[in-house]
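Worked example 2:
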Amino acid sequence: GTYNIQVVYGGDSKYIGNISSIKQIIVNKIPSNISIDINKDSFFIDEEVIITVVLNPTISGIVDLKVGNQTYKIIIYKGFGNLTLTNLTNGTYNIQAVYGGDNKYIGSISIIKQVTVNKIPSNISIDVNKDSFFIDEEVIITVVLNSAISGIVDLKVGNQTYNIVVDNGDL
């Protein structure tokens, strides 16, 4: 804000009172500097995305952290705040922090950083108990999948397709 400064001397038995001229000063808020750090820029679904918000070291308060279309309120203490996300789906996300300022600091906006969340690669392999069989001989086929996969798997043997239900990687 703007302040007027003036000295008033009332005088005494020896000196006459006097009033100084008015000096005007302007006291400005301190600029804030906000940035975001992300533990990496490419993730798989369910992986932890750790976002750290960094402000001037004497700032404590609340920052809005935008991750894609979602806004999170992050508590900042002595210039730092963190958000850990594990619920991001497949896609690319723009991330930006916005500090609104307070009675001492001017607000600021971080640069936009981008992260990509990818689908988890599926690992699939098969094993057969031996390479050569006779007619009517039992064939044992072992299928190995990621332990968390659930759904339908098509097993093709020659021209025949078998739909097999998988629950958490088990056939």
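Residues 62 and 117 are 27 Å apart (CA to CA). The two ends are 72 Å apart (CA to CA).
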